[in-house]
Amino acid sequence: MKFKSLLTLGIAIMGIFLCNDLTAQDPRFAQFYAAPLNLNPAMTGVFEGRFRVTANYREQWSSILSNTPFRTYGAGFDIRYKIASDDYFAFGFNALRDEVGDSRFSQTLGYLNLAYLKQISGGGYRSADQYLVAGVQIGGGQNSLEWNRLWFSEQFDISTATPNPDGLSNNEIGLDPNNNGTNNYLDFNAGLMWYASFDDNKSIYVGAAANHLNAPNIAFFEGASEVLNVRWVGHAGGELPFTDEMSIMPAIAVMVQGPSTSTTFGANIRYSNHDWYEVAIRAGLWGHLVNKLESGSSLDALTFAVILEMERWNLGVSYDINTSNLTRATNARGAFELSLIYTQPAKTRVRVNCPNF
Question: Lowest CB count within 10 Å: 82, 137, 253, 294, which one?
Answer without folding.
Answer: 294
